């Protein structure tokens, strides 16, 4: 969303006197309808933003696949166990790192991300991690884009994507700074008030890039207040980050993480498909690159990260 300066607009307040119950009820209904109308307009604006364009066209190194590949795995930590006893999925998706020792992974679809587990406890906080270039921002955008398509997402009346690296998000000191409405900037305060009145119920916040700002939260940060459940306590949060910043999150607010998910990148089959589609006009180059990839293990191992895959293919193509 484009940052704008919101002009504060207060909702009308009716004084309470004896015998005014009908007036109060009428006013309450009027305010409720007004809030509903404002949030509906805000929803329509957000959906138009998510559907208006493909993600970060200017950042694409090479043509992407027609369908986004966002492979997710639920991370379950428990007792250490022998690598030989790991299931095939876990073995295929381990790419090194000390914390892999205690990891067990289960594949999960984006459609099931917000579905409660067997305990039935509502999912209020999802931590999504992955190394640089793995597709965290692509995931965040795709989740918002499919707001009306995925049943578990349709339960939310408002879905807001906030890129934490944006200064206007990081420096926000009041809710209206976050919930911007460029078509009518003066309504930003009303939107924030409506969301705050419901304590964030039916609100999904997708906070992208915690690792880029984890050391930068100031004392009056609205984002920090939301993470610590001091503001909008009933909202659902999806937070993306690099693994290195997880410990900082715990030091800030120690959130109860309902689901811990990892973006695992390209499978071997998807690497082959990507190269096949990228070089489809150059069959000989396509065959030569695939031979090169399979004969140079350290290159192949790097290409599970989509960004690495694109850069390596680009360099090979240009050379």
From TrEMBL:
<feature type="domain" description="NACHT">
    <location>
        <begin position="124"/>
        <end position="243"/>
    </location>
</feature>
<dbReference type="InterPro" id="IPR027417">
    <property type="entry name" value="P-loop_NTPase"/>
</dbReference>
<protein>
    <submittedName>
        <fullName>NACHT, LRR and PYD domains-containing protein 12</fullName>
    </submittedName>
</protein>
<dbReference type="Pfam" id="PF05729">
    <property type="entry name" value="NACHT"/>
</dbReference>
<dbReference type="InterPro" id="IPR007111">
    <property type="entry name" value="NACHT_NTPase"/>
</dbReference>
């Amino acid at each position: 969303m484009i940052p704008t300066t919101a002009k504060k607009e207060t909702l009308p307040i009716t004084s309470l006197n004896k015998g005014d119950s009908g007036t109060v009820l009428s006013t309450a209904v009027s305010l409720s309808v007004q809030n509903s109308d404002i949030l509906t307009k805000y929803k329509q604006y957000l959906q138009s933003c998510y559907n208006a364009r493909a993600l970060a066209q200017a950042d694409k190194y090479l043509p992407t696949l027609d369908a986004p590949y966002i492979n997710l795995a639920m991370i379950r930590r428990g007792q250490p166990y022998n690598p030989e006893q790991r299931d095939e999925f876990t073995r295929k998706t381990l790419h090194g790192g000390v914390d892999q020792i205690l990891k067990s992974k289960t594949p999960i679809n984006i459609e099931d991300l917000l579905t409660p587990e067997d305990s039935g406890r509502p999912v209020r906080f999802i931590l999504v991690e992955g190394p640089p270039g793995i597709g965290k921002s692509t995931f965040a955008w795709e989740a918002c884009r499919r707001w009306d398509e995925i049943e578990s997402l349709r339960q939310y009346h408002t879905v807001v994507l906030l890129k934490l690296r944006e200064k206007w998000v990081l420096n926000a000191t009041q809710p209206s700074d976050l919930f911007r409405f460029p078509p009518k900037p003066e309504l930003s305060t009303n939107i924030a008030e409506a969301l705050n009145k419901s304590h964030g119920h039916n609100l999904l916040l997708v906070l992208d890039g915690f690792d880029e700002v984890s050391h930068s939260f100031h004392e009056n940060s609205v984002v920090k207040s939301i993470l610590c459940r001091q503001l909008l306590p009933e909202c659902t949060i999806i937070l993306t980050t690099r693994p290195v910043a997880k410990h900082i999150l715990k030091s800030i607010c120690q959130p109860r993480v309902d689901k811990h998910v990892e973006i695992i990148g390209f499978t071997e089959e998807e690497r082959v498909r990507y190269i096949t589609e990228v070089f489809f006009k150059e069959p000989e180059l396509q065959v030569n690159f695939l031979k090169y990839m399979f004969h140079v293990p350290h290159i192949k191992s790097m290409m599970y990260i989509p960004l690495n895959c694109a850069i390596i293919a680009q360099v090979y193509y240009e050379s």
